[in-house]
Amino acid sequence: MTSSSEYGSNSWELKVIVDHQHEEVQKEFTLQVSGDLHVGGVMLKLVERIKIPQDWSDYALWWEQKKCWLLKTHWSLDKCGVQADAKLFFTTQHKMLRLRLPNMKTVRLKVSFSSVVFKAVSDICKILNIRRSEELSLLRQSEDALKKKKKKDKNSKDSEDVLNLCNSPVTSGSTASPGLYSKTMTPTYDPVSGTPASSTMTWFSDSPLTEQNCSVLAFSHPNCSPETLAEMYQPRTLADKAKLNAGWLDSSRSLMEQGILEDDQLLLRFKYYTFFDLNPKYDAVRINQIYEQARWAILLEEIDCTEEEMLIFAALQYHVSKLSLSSEAQNFTCESEADEVEAALSNLEVTLQGGKATNILEDITDIPKLADNLRLLRPKKLALKSFKQYWFVFKDTSISYFKNQESGQGEPIEKLNLKGCEVVPDVNVAGKKFGIKLLIPVADGMNEVYLRCDNENQYAQWMAACILASKGKTMADSSYHPEVHKILSFLKLKNWTVSSQAVSEPEGMDMKPECFVSLRYIKKYKPKQLAARILEAHQNVAQMSLVEAKLRFIQTWQSLPEFGLSYYVVRFKGSKKDDLLGVSYNRLIRIDATTGDPITTWRFSNMKQWNVNWEIRQVAIEFDQNVSIAFTCLSADCKIIHEYIGGYIFLSTRSKDQNEALDEDLFHKLTGGQE
Fold first, then answer.
1. Distance from CA of residue 667 to its chain's centroid?
2. For 275-369, where are the alpha helices, taking DSSP H only?
């Protein structure tokens, strides 16, 4: 031990515990230091004392009490605030982590526990070959889901199948592997079937993704049994759904700072529902994982859908699993299919344009209008519900209605402005019901109006006009016709006929229908009935290629009214009761916690600024026209909602002509919020 006189009187003892990977026990060392010694000097001293020759480059100092890394090696101990009572650990920055992917498979890989989560997720996605990592994040499992899992683990002895990807330290700043971020790379996937092309399978020289591993990630594997489904956590209420969103990690802090330990399990999920630039050439893994996340959301009833929609989802799943198992999936190479996939993708882009302003200058004189007889219902508490016919005119972003066509030139009975309204389909194709439910914002909440159309074509035109108007766009916008086309193609999917030929399909005999629907429908129908109905719906999708079926599944999911809504329990300023807040890619919705009805909608496009008062944990947002709201979050930390809103604003700044490098500083600026 060196005498303190060598260091002068201001030296003191610092205890450092070395977390040595190859030894079970941690060793504690006492170093004689002074406040002006920099962090790098402490590490150097320590390594000299340990006397074990090895590569220490991944090691850094972790300050346990303050839950922070000392990564600025040029900072002095005084500047860091480290004194003699500090307990420091000398430990690796990259550690093993278990990740449960959207397809419910678990992978184990090495992740940086010292980088902020935004960067760690980017590294994880490089290993897994998923582009656009900014759409994903890490989620802690909810308490309820964990309780259910513990119960299941007691009953079952089978150990989970974990895919080990641990031979891949993707080190931060490593430039050796451009991976799929290299623009000149030859397509890694068969552009048509979306299946991995073996010759270019491994993108990085050090990638652990062998072909077999990649197929686990890029293919959908045979489905689970109702028993497995019953053992998984299913949210029953909107408050349950809110619990699912409480566990998102803070993107601007590291895993270690958030209490995550080596070999813990987290969920990797698509957090932001704006899937940008999906491309089957490069995105087999990404498309499959989005498809899987959508599939499980449907099966576990995390999102509501009608019975008709459930059967479409079932038919598409059945089709995907059939193709995934067959060898033909490897050999699709026909031109027309490539075109169909292109069309499906451009449709998907339309769906996702969301709240972005288009650059098309609308010529006011040239804005198309719709005029037709429709039926209208305004629900009144005690009145009998009957629809009444009126003459409707849709112009700009509003609907006016008149007693009949002759009085169409005069004053309307009422004019409904649809900007900022919620548009909900109210359709049953088999029952020839083509309805549109409008929730129109008024001073004290939402007015409900139901429109009823006569046929598919009329419905598609009016529905598309309503959807655009809700975003403040008119029918002159370039996305109007693709939107009409998309709605018609959904209706076509739902329009199947009962035919004896479908039911007698030989391969349908061994279908396990209970793998493709949620528990509610397993209880409602006998397996044979269910199989017959799925096969009827399957006729409309039987010709699709594998990647097209997955994209169609994703699109159908996106067309559900609840799509992309993440719920939080909040208390609005001045309110005496709790409400739910739905956060979506283009708006916030205040929802009545007891009835589930929307009360008010605020669009991001009208948002001027938002901030958090960290002392009282209150989020305050200002919109155009002097509208301002403030709320505290009860089901999660308010930082999570703050980051969600900022994240969506950040993602809306992406454009196709940018290269894929992201402005990480802008992300942290929009989502960080200073505590």
1. 17
2. 284-299, 307-325, 335-353
Q: What are the tens digits of pLDDT across the range 557-569? A: 999 988 999 999 9
Q: Among 37-51, 78-92, 197-211, whose mean pLDDT is lowest?
A: 197-211
Q: Among 1.10.8.60, 3.65.10.10, 3.30.43.10, 3.10.20.90, name the CATH number for the domain at 11-92.
A: 3.10.20.90
For residue 316, pLDDT beyond 70: yes
Distance CA 230, CA 220 (A): 20
CA 333 to chain centre: 31
- 274: tokens are 């704006």
What single string gives the DSSP state of each residue in 269-289?
EE-S----S--TTT-HHHHHH
Q: Please give the Cα distance from 10 to 474 (Å, whole number).
A: 73
pLDDT, the chain, mean: 82
Query: Within 10 Å of residue 519's Cβ, how many Cβ atoms?
Result: 16
Task: Concatenate the DSSP letters of all residues of 432-488 into one string.
Answer: TEEEEEEEEEETTEEEEEEEEESSHHHHHHHHHHHHHHHTT--TTSTTHHHHHHHHH
Residues 372-392 have pLDDT tens digits of 999 998 876 555 668 899 999
pLDDT at 205 over 50: no
The residue among 38, 35, 37, 33 whose CA lies nearest residue 14 is 33
CATH number for the 566-672 domain, one of 2.60.40.10, 2.30.29.30, 3.30.2310.20, 3.40.980.10?
A: 2.30.29.30
334, pLDDT greater than 90:
no
> Which amino acid, one-letter code, is at 150?
K
Q: Is the pLDDT confidence value at 244 over 60? A: yes
Answer whether 0.90 is exceeded by the pTM. no
Count of other CB atoms within 10 angstroms of residue 186: 9
Which amino acid is located at 398 in the chain? S
All CATH 3.10.20.90 domain ranges in the chain, comma separated: 11-92
CATH architecture assigned to 369-475: Roll (2.30)
- In the chain, residues under CATH classification 2.30.29.30 are 369-475, 566-672
